[in-house]
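stage 2 :: seqdesign
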């Protein structure tokens, strides 16, 4: 009888061992886990775009006069100074008009002199008439003169007075005519000076649209003859940045760019201006970013297309991981092994101690809990975590959001029982804001044949690598991808 029981116990042990071996080796397939080490490096976040090289400032030079281009004194790529003559319109017509106005001015001056002499003669006649009137009045008073002579003298004095007034008015009119001719002469001289087309700024001629002998007509608008660019030792690039990236760009961001003419040369610049006027093309909204750059050798020419990279952030010698690790989540075989490992090592919630410590610290800080309250909260949470871990193995059930939601509900139940209504209301607000914040994610490491979640805070990313601000030590092996190993 004893031998029979021993045999049964031995068979049962073999069956249990075989089941355990099957669960360990067959229930969860062997995995090929690819990892990458967290290393130190530099991260540079950039916005890539393209733009057109333009001169720092350009001026279109035209003509206010119509006529034939008599002479050209500047050509393409000519360096010019402010006030330098670039061309001249044939001046004979305008010179003739100046001479005509000079003659008219001389006539007006002579007329002024004539009218002034006339006025002086009128004053003299008035003086004589006043003397004749005085003598006639004296003779009538003495009774030796006739009244008719007095009346004649009075009429003569009044007539000469009127003649003097007319002469003075003619002097005023002649002087006004003189001013008019002077103004007309000044205008003619200005037009004659305008036959010289001069450079308004120091710079270089980048465009010439006329030839000697060509007729230009200045009617409604001035015809463009030349385009002069300011010193090409400094240039601007007008780059179009997509609305999704414009929020990263700020003034003084460093910029590097290349042009097709010099593909092996990298030019430097910085953001000078962000224009607020949007540009919409084919339902794509962009904004113009103006970039200043030095061009000491003159290799950057107006109109070139620049391939621009705007550096919007940079960190040196920081902990970085491949960005692919941020996208990994345990699924399929990896999820099954994670379930087995979690129950085998009692860590279904990941590193419970680490997360619990962060949760307790956050509760203490934001809810202003005392030592006694913190002790009660910690004891209650420890009891709940222990109950969760002793609930039994989940087998192959997925460790997805269901488990995390269960944990969240249990934590809320514990805190509702321990905290005051006001404190629990603050906790709910804190939970709605999210425990991780906008830059916190969970990545997975693989150590000693087991998966471990790591809650980390992210920094800059360049698309290929991402900065880890906190939560992951240098040298940790982060999971990049998992596949089922060939049997």
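stage 2 :: out
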């Amino acid at each position: 009888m004893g031998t029979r029981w021993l045999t049964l116990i031995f068979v049962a042990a073999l069956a249990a061992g075989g089941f355990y071996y099957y669960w360990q080796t067959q229930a969860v397939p062997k995995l090929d886990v690819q990892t990458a080490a967290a290393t130190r490096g530099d991260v540079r976040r950039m916005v890539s775009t393209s733009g057109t090289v333009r001169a720092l400032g350009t001026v279109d030079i035209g003509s206010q006069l119509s006529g034939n281009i008599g002479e050209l004194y500047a050509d393409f790529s000519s360096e010019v100074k402010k006030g330098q003559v670039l061309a001249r319109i044939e001046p004979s017509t305008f010179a003739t008009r100046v001479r005509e106005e000079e003659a008219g001015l001389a006539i007006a001056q002579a007329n002024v002199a004539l009218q002034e002499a006339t006025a002086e003669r009128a004053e003299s006649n008035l003086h004589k008439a006043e003397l004749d009137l005085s003598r006639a009045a004296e003779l009538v008073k003495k009774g030796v003169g006739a009244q008719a002579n007095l009346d004649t003298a009075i009429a003569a004095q009044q007539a000469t007075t009127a003649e003097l007034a007319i002469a003075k008015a003619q002097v005023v009119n002649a002087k006004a005519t003189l001013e008019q001719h002077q103004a007309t002469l000044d205008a003619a001289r200005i037009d004659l000076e305008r036959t010289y087309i001069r450079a308004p700024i120091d710079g270089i001629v980048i465009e010439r649209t006329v030839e000697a002998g060509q007729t230009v007509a200045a009617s409604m608008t001035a015809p463009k003859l030349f385009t002069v660019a300011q010193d090409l030792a400094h240039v601007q690039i007008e780059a179009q940045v997509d609305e999704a990236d414009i929020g990263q760009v700020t003034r003084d961001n460093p910029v590097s760019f290349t042009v097709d003419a010099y593909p092996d040369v990298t030019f430097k610049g910085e953001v000078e201006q962000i224009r607020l006027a949007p540009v919409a093309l084919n339902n794509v909204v962009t904004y113009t970013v103006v970039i200043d750059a030095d061009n000491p050798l003159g290799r950057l020419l107006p109109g070139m297309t620049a391939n621009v990279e705007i550096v919007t952030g940079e960190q040196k010698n920081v902990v970085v991981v491949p960005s692919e690790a941020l996208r990994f989540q345990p699924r399929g075989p990896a999820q099954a092994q994670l379930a087995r490992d979690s129950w085998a090592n009692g860590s279904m919630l990941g590193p419970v101690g680490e997360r619990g410590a962060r949760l307790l610290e956050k509760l203490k800080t934001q809810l202003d809990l005392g030592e006694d309250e913190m002790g009660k909260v910690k004891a209650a949470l420890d009891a709940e975590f222990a109950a969760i871990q002793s609930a039994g193995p989940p087998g192959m059930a997925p460790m997805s959001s269901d488990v995390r939601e269960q944990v969240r509900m249990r934590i809320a139940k514990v805190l509702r029982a321990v905290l005051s209504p006001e404190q629990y209301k603050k906790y709910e607000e804190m939970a709605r804001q999210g425990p991780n914040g906008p830059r916190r994610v969970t990545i997975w490491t693989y150590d000693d044949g087991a998966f471990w979640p790591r809650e980390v805070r992210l920094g800059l990313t360049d698309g290929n690598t991402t900065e880890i601000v906190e939560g992951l030590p240098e040298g940790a092996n982060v999971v990049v991808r998992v596949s089922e190993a060939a049997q």
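stage 3 :: structure notes
- The radius of gyration is 50 Å.
- The CA atoms of residues 87 and 316 lie 57 Å apart.
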